[in-house]
Amino acid sequence: MNATELRRRWWPRSVRARTALAVASATAVILVGIGWWVHHDVYRQSTQIAEEQAKSQLWSLCERLRQGVVPDSTTTVPYEVVATGRRTAVASGGALRDAYPGTHHVMPTPPTEGVAALIPLTSVRLPVNRDYNPKDIFGIAGGTQRVVTCDIEADELSRDKAAALGVAADARLRVYVVVLPHTAEAITKTTDRLLLGAGLVSVVLIAAVAYFAVRFALRPVEAIRVLTASVTASDPRERVTVPATGHEITALATTINTTLQRLDNAAAQQRRFVADAAHELRSPLTTLLASLEVALAYPERTDWPATATTAARQTRRLHALAEDLLLLARLDTRTPTAGPETVDLTALASRLTEQCPRSERPLTLTCDSTAPAYAHGNLDEYERLLRNLIDNAARHAAHRIQITIRNQDAWVVLTVHDDGPGVPTEDAERIFERFVRLDDARSRDHGGTGLGLAIARDLAHRHRGTLTLTPRTLGACFRLRLPRAPTPAEK
């Protein structure tokens, strides 16, 4: 079993469990940080309190010594008073007296000369007493202890007070008070236990709240999932209920409904396309089959050249329709892009003008352009686009077709205008749909598959342009707008 499989087995799959685990992990990290800060702050403040207690005890001892009174040895705060010229301690109390009974003294003797010292906080290493077995938490024999000290000069004591203390008249006394860390440590340990218990309970409660909150929040998503599971490609008419809360689930439901609507529209369009394609294919096939069956049934009375001409005409129609369908299929599957090639639309339009489409009536086809018009794209596709527009105009024009090309800022604008019957305003967009023919403007007998304008618009969109029908009082005017490419001299 590899690491990926182990991670997949260990890591929960549901969003609820993942969210709860993530929230619990984040909460644990935050609580650990807070606990670390509280631990150190409590220890610091407890230590400060112990130091203040030791300093208070120090000032009390110094005051009693200045009055010539030997301090009481029965105290909870360890202290020791040493003097110059004296081998034993003047006084000691607390854990120091218990840890070193019968010894001279354990604290350093003050120097005989120099300025009197007032050391608020320092460290002193105490000797080890192997015979000492402490009975309480204040066992301090051995190790380094933090102490506060203060010196008392001989001139601060009278002879009587010095004699009462058992020191020489010119002796210097130094008072040591040990700062007990045990209180601070005990308070910190108690606080740590409380924080640990509260932290564990908090992590569990927050994870549970997150789990059930996400479970409640995902109920609309589950309802959306159940409903969308019933949607099929052939019948995408189901719609999800949009919550009235206005949160992210509402946006999700709205987006899903919009997507389902697009699927429904696409499915309906595809059904119409298939039906129209089948109908368009059936017409020439029916004509071709009927002419061939009649010719085979009455071979001696058949005009075979006319039959062959009809068959060839219908075959060409089938071929053109198949080519248009294949082109539309390719355009539907490709991403719109202009391509790196540069095409001069003015030159292309001029060439197509010279190749005027054949018609039963005389037509005048002119091209009006003031300068070359360059656009990025494929020459064959641009030729197909313009030829479709010209063929469409030729089928409906009465006498004249006018092609106009202009460079307008960053765009190339090409128009194809005919003097035919025109297009009603309400059908200005409908004519670009596939297999659409207007009864008053088109006839199946005059050619056309109903795909020319649809292909032209798709090709325009593929080259990041637009193809629209511009309103005119006479005839139809198609306006092609494409991004302008720099001329070869500008490159």
UniProtKB/TrEMBL annotation:
<feature type="transmembrane region" description="Helical">
    <location>
        <begin position="194"/>
        <end position="214"/>
    </location>
</feature>
<dbReference type="InterPro" id="IPR004358">
    <property type="entry name" value="Sig_transdc_His_kin-like_C"/>
</dbReference>
<feature type="domain" description="Histidine kinase">
    <location>
        <begin position="276"/>
        <end position="486"/>
    </location>
</feature>
<dbReference type="GO" id="GO:0000155">
    <property type="term" value="F:phosphorelay sensor kinase activity"/>
</dbReference>
<keyword id="KW-0808">Transferase</keyword>
<dbReference type="InterPro" id="IPR003594">
    <property type="entry name" value="HATPase_dom"/>
</dbReference>
<keyword id="KW-0472">Membrane</keyword>
<keyword id="KW-0812">Transmembrane</keyword>
<dbReference type="InterPro" id="IPR003660">
    <property type="entry name" value="HAMP_dom"/>
</dbReference>
<keyword id="KW-1133">Transmembrane helix</keyword>
<dbReference type="InterPro" id="IPR036890">
    <property type="entry name" value="HATPase_C_sf"/>
</dbReference>
<feature type="transmembrane region" description="Helical">
    <location>
        <begin position="20"/>
        <end position="38"/>
    </location>
</feature>
<dbReference type="InterPro" id="IPR050428">
    <property type="entry name" value="TCS_sensor_his_kinase"/>
</dbReference>
<dbReference type="GO" id="GO:0005886">
    <property type="term" value="C:plasma membrane"/>
</dbReference>
<dbReference type="InterPro" id="IPR003661">
    <property type="entry name" value="HisK_dim/P_dom"/>
</dbReference>
<feature type="domain" description="HAMP">
    <location>
        <begin position="215"/>
        <end position="268"/>
    </location>
</feature>
<keyword id="KW-0597">Phosphoprotein</keyword>
<dbReference type="Pfam" id="PF02518">
    <property type="entry name" value="HATPase_c"/>
</dbReference>
<dbReference type="InterPro" id="IPR005467">
    <property type="entry name" value="His_kinase_dom"/>
</dbReference>
<dbReference type="Pfam" id="PF00512">
    <property type="entry name" value="HisKA"/>
</dbReference>
<dbReference type="InterPro" id="IPR036097">
    <property type="entry name" value="HisK_dim/P_sf"/>
</dbReference>
<keyword id="KW-0418">Kinase</keyword>
<protein>
    <recommendedName>
        <fullName>histidine kinase</fullName>
        <ecNumber>2.7.13.3</ecNumber>
    </recommendedName>
</protein>
<keyword id="KW-0902">Two-component regulatory system</keyword>
